[in-house]
Amino acid sequence: MRSGYEMRIADVLRSKGSGVATVVASATVAELIAELAAHNVGALPVIDGERLVGIVSERDVVRRLDAGGPQLLAATVGDIMTTDVTTCSPEDSVADLAAIMTARRFRHLPVVVGGRLAGIVSIGDLVKARIDLLESERAQLQSYIAG
User: What is the residue range of 15's domain?
Assistant: First the structure.
């Protein structure tokens, strides 16, 4: 891994893997909830073939459920998803993206390469990567000092 200021999303994906659970816009909200639970995730990219068309999160479901009641479960993911999706590339800086995610208050960021979904990172993934790097640097410094 690189130093903290140079750590890239590619480093995070190497450690966590690039597998991504997805959902289609025509799925019902009830089906979405089942997928979120099955994969133990808080958000899913919405795809059309291999193209990213949106993202949908637990927060989207809860806010719409409060406004629309239980009939929301029959609505489609396309009805509640966010279509203006911020994405990143494997070469983007972990520190820069963590700052953007914190400032803009979202927790999941799809990774796109050549227009195709290549992974997804959460703010938790970025924090874990930074902690792991700091632990590694600490161990290296201790080893150096101990000589």
Answer: 9-146
